[in-house]
Amino acid sequence: MIHNEHTNTTWLFEITPKNKFFTLNLKEVWQYRDLLMLFVKRDVVTVYKQTVLGPLWYLIQPLFTSITFTIIFNNLAGIDTGTVPPFLFNLAGITVWNYFTACLTGTSNTFGANAGIFGKVYFPRLIVPISIVISNLIKFGIQFLIFIAFYIFYYLKGVNVGLNGSVVFFPFLIVLMGVLGLGLGMFISSLVTKYRDFSNLIGFGVQLLMYLSAVMYPMALIKEKLPDYGWLVQYNPLAYVIETTRYMLLNVGHISIWGLGYTFLVTVIVFFVGVLIFNKTEKSFIDTV
Amino acid sequence: MSKDIILKAENISKQYRLGQVGTGTLTHDLNRWWHQIRGKENPYLKIGDVNDRSTKATSDYVWALRDINFEVERGEVIGIIGKNGAGKSTLLKILSKVTAPTTGNIKFKGRVASLLEVGTGFNGEMTGRENIFLNGAILGMTKKEIASKLDEIIDFSGCDRYIDTPVKRYSSGMTVRLAFAVAAFLDPEILIIDEVLAVGDAEFQKKAIGKMQDISKQGGRTVLFVSHNMTAVRQLCTKGILLENGNIKMHSDMQSVLDEYTKSSKKQSEFKYLIKEDKTLISKIAIKNQFNYLTNVFQYNDEIIIEIDVIVNNPKVSLSIFIKDNDFNLIFIDEYPVNESGKFKIIIPTGFLLKSTYYADVHLYRPNINFFDSKKDEVTFIIENYPDKFSMYDNVNCGIINSPLVWSKIG
């Protein structure tokens, strides 16, 4: 073939077999920002269409889980939560933990759940996991309101619930949790397109992970009672997020700068690996899904 | 004047794996990765069959497209046609970035929007209006763009009354109308359309074709259009690409491509044509054997039955059949008077035609006055072998007509 290179030099874009090694393509995501917001709206709104209780459903789940945890772990098993009421202790952990699992399970099914639309039309695939993280952030906000409500309730009852000054950094903690869930979810969603085994893994894996993430017990407790297995929790970045949450909101437990630094590092690595694999997958996953 | 090339595809190929993804995937992946880190070529790219669905595969990999090269000029409306499995949809998927080519690249000079099977991306729980915004955004429009065209879109879709009803209550026709309406008001330089006109009623199809003609003519927009609807393709497209087994067989003006396509669809044994009740025309031709079985491959001792449906609205019409050989030389003709619509049957008796490929042209005319309808070079049939008396010559050419000669010893 003869190419007329000099006449056709200004191509707008090009399709090639492979993406560049690492591209976030944020420019393209920005162009599709309206779609991002519409996806978020769709996710939030459609959940409670044709339901009577509507958004109340967002509140019922953490509430009942906290009650169950309080009965099982505190009343029955006798885990000591110090000066903080066990219910509030559990509610704080569960609310943050829920945000992580919602991000993880939501994004880990990106390709599977959207195969139909991905197979028909192109838009930056990254939009979908990002929209899931944002819509879950809204759900988290609603769930956090119920935590605040109970916090005020206990405060008015005269219970000594402390608030740590470091609470101003709480939003960063939530972002960290969201990014970690997003990164891990993208990583898994890419693997699931080829090896379905991972979708089985995620179901019970998340449940097991919760027990290793200090959701229903203080981190110090596991070191004290199970010194042989304490490292499992100590190397779990999620445990630090949960522990720090309670430190900020309820002034219990410890804050570990080393632990948070470690969590931050893991999050960054997981996120970049996730994006890397996601980019590689999005080009031709439709052939294997 | 230099050509304004808006899209240029160079050496695109697409390889698919046959069978189930699962067993052996991991070993192939590892092998591929092992070759990659040593800087060698992907070992599975060297193998792979030509994509012919009817033949048995000899390898696990198949080339859905192989070395596709073409250029599209600004403002062209290109029809992509081909048999099922020729690679049309794969090509459109690659062009619309849904999947990446295995090799090769495509360069664009404009924004691309694709409309592949409408209605995907619609959320049943949301209203028509909400879905216009959602679908528009999926297709690459901004909220502002959609809002400015909202009234036009609703008007074009004809779903005004239901616009605030959830889409799950819509009929399938209404969903298609709404989806097409959104896409029709897109503003990309290149629009890719796959089989959208297959649904919707005749009135809407007409409207859709008209809209597409407007888009390409006024806006100077480039359209790539895949369809099995030959009438729509003929009406809309200026140029055509004929795909066959993953290769471009022809890239030329639409009419020549359509002709080539009809020629290449030789295995067909039933032909249906557009019916207009008030005209005089041929509506259907079918080729069968003596067991009333649709086929166009025969043994020497089969009867060849040609059935022709005609609609007749004129007096003194004759139906004729012209049998031609493989080189289009006329062998014989015959005709039959037809005074009213109906189905006519012609039997070519056994042992009359010998081993060859034949064309059966059918004409409907008033003798020496005018032609009403003609179907030329479309209907073909093959006779595969010679009668027993020639079988000892091992397929030497023995002619194509069984001679009626009478032999006798007289001295």
UniProtKB/TrEMBL annotation, chain A:
GO terms for cellular component: ATP-binding cassette (ABC) transporter complex. It is a multi-pass membrane protein. The chain crosses the membrane at residues 56-76, 96-118, 130-156, 168-189, 201-222, 255-278. InterPro entries: ABC2_TM, ABC2_TM_bact-type, ABC_2_transport. Residues 53-281 form the ABC transmembrane type-2 domain. One of its GO terms (molecular function) is ABC-type transporter activity. Its main location: membrane. One of its GO terms (biological process) is lipopolysaccharide transport. It holds the Pfam family ABC2_membrane. Keywords: Cell inner membrane, Cell membrane, Membrane, Transmembrane, Transmembrane helix, Transport. It is found in: Cell inner membrane; Cell membrane. Belongs to the ABC-2 integral membrane protein family. This is Transport permease protein. It comes from Flavobacterium urumqiense. The lineage of its organism: Bacteria, Pseudomonadati, Bacteroidota, Flavobacteriia, Flavobacteriales.
Automatic annotation (TrEMBL), chain B:
GO terms for molecular function: ABC-type transporter activity; ATP binding; ATP hydrolysis activity. Pfam families: ABC_tran. Belongs to the ABC transporter superfamily. One of its GO terms (cellular component) is membrane. It comes from the Bacteria. Keywords: ATP-binding, Nucleotide-binding, Transport. It comes from Flavobacterium urumqiense. Residues 45-270 form the ABC transporter domain. PROSITE patterns: ABC_TRANSPORTER_2. This is Lipopolysaccharide transport system ATP-binding protein.
